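DOMAIN: structural biology
WANTED: fold as tokens
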Amino acid sequence: MRARYGWRHHRRARRQPPGVQGPRHAGRRAAPVRERVRGRAGRAVRAGHPDRRRGRPGGRDPPGGGRGLTASRTAFVTGGTGLVGGALVEALLGEGVEVTALARAPQGARRLADAGAQVVRGGIGEADRWSSRADDCEVIFHVGLPRMVPPVRSRHLKRAERGAVADAGIIRGVAAGRPVVMASCAIADAAGPLDIATPALAAEAALDPHTTRVVRLPWAYGPSGLICDISRGLQMRRYRMVGPAGNRIALIGASDAARALVAAASAPLGTYVVAEPGPPTQQELVHHICAGRSAPRPDHIPPRMARMTMGSVVVDALTADQSVRDAPPPAFRVQQNWQRDLLGALEGA
């Protein structure tokens, strides 16, 4: 008796129209195969391709007539599945830049591919999988810092710092003198950077200062990330303000963060810092989200109790009076405003 499993897939494969992959991927259309030429010759070929002159494949001009990032038409992005990285990929594609993005998770890879990016599956530590694809690109955007999920304690911070330095060393080796733009952390108080910024600052030091532009960012708001998690917690009545909540929290919209990274690619070498003017206090931020989400206002929890669930690193950042000195790339101006745009940016979260 013939196995029904194989027979069923055989019939399904026979019914598939041309261009659809085999039985294991029944119903899914295969992505078109693009013949690529590697290295400098490949860049020359792509520069003359009609799709390159018209911006994104499909023949339509990108928004703004393709202005920005004029010196680089191909970019490699790490961390493209994150909040800022995803916004960066969209911004680059909107400028008509051909984007190759590194993604570890299949869900994130599909989102990037649907947006129009070429995707390489793997992590930064698996350079043998993606280094040849990065060789085709004129600039590398390094946004893929190790993710720290609460509770974040000192031992987690040290592990993240080691990982960030190792990843930055790999990026430096693969870049081999080409421009690198890194998204770093600007969370600090009057005394200096807070502990939560340690991994990012260590990664900065591991990159080549002669080819690297750094953009330091505070907490970004959008459909994911810490601010989004706070919003979800408030709606579920599982988040409480930490401490007196009169401390300022520096913010930046994810779209503005992406625009700052794109602007830095054409700016002189150096370290830039971007943040929205007039940051809210922790209480103002929470009350603003509660009003927009029709959620009850929470009470306060002492920091020592919050450390049990969030970890000391996150609690110290949430309760610090954050002070960020804005030093943006030339020609960049903040466009988003948390009072006007934060709730809309959280939509779908």
User: Anything to note?
Assistant: The mean pLDDT is 85.
